[in-house]
Specification:
heterodimer, A: mainly alpha, Rna Polymerase Sigma Factor, Chain: A, Arc Repressor Mutant, subunit A, 10 helices, elongated, B: alpha+beta, four-stranded mixed β-sheet, 4 helices, 12 strands, 18% helix
Amino acid sequence: MDWVGHKASEREFADFAAESWDPLLRTGYLMTGDAKDAEDLIQETLLRVARRWKRVGSMDHPAAYARRVLINLVLHDADRRSRQRAELWPQDGGTEAADDGAARALRKVDDQAEFRWALAQLPARARAVLVLRYWADLPVAEVADILGCSEGTVTSTASRAAARLAEALSHGAPPATRTHRSASMKGNT
Amino acid sequence: MPTEELENELRGALARAAADIQDPEQAGQRLLGRDYRPGRGHRRLAAGAAATAAGAVALSLGLTGAFGSAPARGSGTIRTTAFTLVEQPNGTASLSINPNVLLEPSTLQSDLQQDGIPAMVHTGSFCSSEPTPAGFHQVVTVQRSVTVKRSPATLTINPAAIPVGTELSFGFFQLSQGLETAIGLVYTNSYTCTSTATAGALPGAGLAVVWNLVALPS
């Protein structure tokens, strides 16, 4: 670690962590579906950021770096499990009618646990597209850069992922999911 | 390109889901209370797992699927979703295995070694020595007769009792009935590995098997 013995760097990192933990935690929560898993994930993320703080601290947007670390941790875990990366949908299979149907389904959601369950049914990269694009509100180009795909793939994946979300919600979550879900959803593929 | 209406609904749904997290302030306090400097052990998320040292072994490890997450480390404790490793004041370590989560063998192996417990950890294979090194039951004790499936199983490991030239061997096998865990002592320089699940019948003394409430050698 390049900040040992440098009190100023330690303070800078502490300030960064104080500003960043909340959005990181919520991003992790959406990616994993579980609060404890999200907390573990954020701790690992902050550890990795801390190890590179001398470089990261001089970046224009260290929070963006930390978010990228977080997403990569989830995707790496998913890759390790599935051994396949075909989780994005490059062909635009979405239609306006399908988008309308998905929008209607999302509008009806009143059980957040069920929504998180439905989100967890998506492949990790598709989930990342939705979380980065519509929760973190990143431009399509930045999402594409983080995920290493084209901008077209990001937009088509968003439509397809939304359709899958709607389909999962229409079938409903298992009853236990509605009240409590303790198992990790991280890395579902 | 998703329609504008769909994009708006996605933003709203994700924002509501993100806002639904319970006790974020407590999580924040825990996160900010940790020491992120290197070489500090990074073991902070104490799960409070109680070690139970008893006689021989019988544990049930049902399996649902998800891999454990990256370890959270605090003073004396490493906690992942798959296992919790707690250093005890008397020098022993307690290892609680979450039967609901597939563990990552390299993570468990490195964390055991970090606690001064030489070990090899494999999934789909188990390594043993013939003859088996003596002293296993001075090294490992396991909570007896866990009756609730998918409850955490806890082992107590005494690294000081590990004979010189030996190390612990862990083998995890996913079976239709659940997860079988075989544990034994092996000579570091002389062992063989098998990919056959032991199904509750490990050969030789000084070995433990952890499998669907099957009792083990005492």
